[in-house]
Write a structure and sequence with these properties.
Elements (H helix, E strand, L loop, with lengths): L6 H8 L4 E5 L2 E4 H18 L5 E4 L4 H13 L3 E4 L6 H11 L3 E3 L20 E7 L7 E6 H13 L8 E4 L6 H12 L3 E4 L5 H10 L4 E4 L1 H13 L9 E5 L5 H10 L4 E8 L3 E7 L8 E5 L4 E5 L12 E6 L6 E4 L6 E3 L2 E3 L2 E5 L4 E7 L3 E4 L2 E4 H8 L5 E11 L3 E10 L5 H11 L8 E4 L13 H14 L1
Parallel strand pairs: 1-9, 3-4, 3-5, 4-6, 8-9, 8-10, 10-11, 11-12, 25-26
Antiparallel strand pairs: 1-2, 6-7, 7-17, 12-13, 13-14, 14-21, 15-16, 16-20, 18-19, 20-21, 22-23, 24-25
Helix pairs in contact: 1-2, 2-3, 7-8, 8-9
């Protein structure tokens, strides 16, 4: 099959009445899914042309998935937009991408003959959005073929299959959630989706729907584990957990193991532009601090600023070559993401050791120079978050007439903490020049819609504090 969602119709023919998609109280059979997708594709054929962009502002996750698959079936490009965006952001996205059609409700029409083209692997089918440095999101474009290559990794390396029941614990505007839900349907597995992330409700849904695979962000997994352990109700049916790479405390790993005692935890590193890059699972031989080895079909090189390939152990830009790479940006983008002879970097830096394990240093755009030394914000954050009392940390560099850059840190502590303890912790593992000059304790820690630290808002908060002192 050359396009995303194509196997759904064969699944509907073989098991028409079996449940394929669950969203809250809504249960849709494979036959109902296939019919809805065909109806949506027929409506698109009436109003748009192949290759046209269709902006989907649909809050209900099941309807959003069916509309996206209808776009794929009709060889249109689905723009997955957040129905909750403020009007200013929504207007900026529409003006920046110029979609042919904007859809805010279910995509249907009475079934009837339509002249639907067969999508090709190189055809774009999906535009997603990720945060941009100016506050306006970057719009990245993906082809059918790039996601099909990613699906092959999910099935071949992670071992997912059509008998699974895959639970997605949050909104589908997050690219990880969307990928997990669509990949489940593509391989013939039931997808269980939720509009809101409410840990107690998600845990109850896992049990009720007999889910055995969980896609989650690190924050979601930690909150689900805490909720399950708090009431003493582990979830033994979850056999596989796929989570984007994170800096884990050992107590968090124990909490996950207690909450999901039978689960294999797959931690992977990737980006919206690259899909999967490297991965490892709990209990393997991956050294501490590494995000694992390159996944099948993926090549990694570390290059210097001049494009020269660096030897093992040297830190430079991470370049990737695979069939999973994105086509480019529809809107936004920055100088950090660039191509070189079929290889792509998104500006992440790191090194590969002699055994092929990849270690991340941080984003190049988050690197600053203090007293002539290159400092990655992430290396400071990793040290601070190793303190069990610190649930989140972020480092920033502000202009300083003496050092060039003055390093400060924002910290979210779960109990009263003092700067002296954190400074001693940093001095234990960092060169003195990399140790923050000041620590700011933040209770109301800002998060993005995807559950990650909102670095833009946090930096503004810390800058205001610095200016006031």
């Amino acid at each position: 099959m050359t396009w995303v969602g194509a196997p759904l119709f064969e699944k509907a023919r073989r098991t028409p009445d079996e449940t394929g998609l669950v969203s809250g109280s809504l249960q849709l059979s494979w036959n109902q899914l296939a019919l809805a997708v065909e109806q949506g594709a027929s409506r698109l054929a009436d109003t748009t042309q192949p290759g046209d962009k269709v902006a989907l502002f649909i809050g209900e996750p099941a309807e959003l998935m069916m509309a996206m698959l209808a776009c794929a079936r009709a060889a249109r490009v689905a723009m997955i937009c957040d129905a909750g965006w403020p009007e200013k952001k929504r207007r900026a996205v529409i003006e920046g991408t110029n979609p042919t059609l904007v859809v805010e409700e279910q995509l249907r029409r009475d079934p009837g003959p339509s002249d639907l083209p067969v999508p090709k692997p190189d055809d774009p089918f999906y535009i997603g959005f990720t945060s941009g440095s100016t506050g306006v999101p970057k719009a990245f474009r993906r082809s059918h073929g790039s996601w099909l290559a990613s699906f092959a990794v999910s099935e071949g390396h992670f071992g997912l299959n059509a008998s699974d029941r895959v639970l997605i614990p949050g909104g589908l505007t997050h690219s990880l959630h969307l990928y997990g839900a669509i990949q489940a349907l593509h391989m013939g597995a039931a997808a269980i989706v939720s509009r809101l992330f409410l840990p107690a409700a998600i845990l109850a849904q896992m049990t009720e729907e007999k889910a055995n695979v969980l896609y989650a962000t690190p924050t979601q997994l930690q909150l689900l584990s805490l909720a399950a352990n708090r009431v003493g109700r582990p979830v033994p049916d979850i056999a596989q957990i796929l989570v984007s790479g994170a800096k884990w405390h050992e107590e968090n790993r124990r909490a996950v193991a207690n909450a999901f005692p039978n689960a294999r935890l797959h931690e992977f590193y990737g980006t919206s532009e690259t899909s999967f890059i490297a991965a490892h699972e709990t209990g393997d031989d991956c050294p501490a601090g590494s995000v694992g080895r390159a996944l099948p079909g993926i090549d990694i090189e570390i290059r210097g600023d001049n494009g020269r390939i660096l030897p093992a152990g040297e830190t430079g830009l991470i370049y990737v070559r695979s069939g999973q790479l994105f086509d480019g940006y529809e809107m936004g983008g920055d100088g950090e993401t660039r191509w070189q002879d079929g290889w792509l970097t998104v500006g992440d830096c790191g090194h590969v050791d002699e055994d092929g394990f990849l270690f991340l240093a941080g984003r190049r755009k988050r690197m600053f120079v203090s007293a002539g030394v290159n400092v990655f914000a992430e290396e400071i954050e990793t040290i601070l978050e190793s303190d069990p009392n610190v649930s989140a940390a972020a480092a920033f560099g502000f202009s300083d007439p003496l050092r060039g850059t003055r390093i400060v840190a924002a910290v979210k502590a779960e109990a009263p903490a003092d700067a002296g303890t954190l400074r001693a912790l940093c001095l234990r593992d960092l060169e003195p020049v990399k140790v923050p000059r000041r620590f700011h304790f933040v209770e109301d820690w800002p998060l993005t819609a995807g559950g990650k630290t909102d670095l833009q808002r946090l930096e503004q908060m810390i800058r205001m504090r610095e200016d006031a002192e």
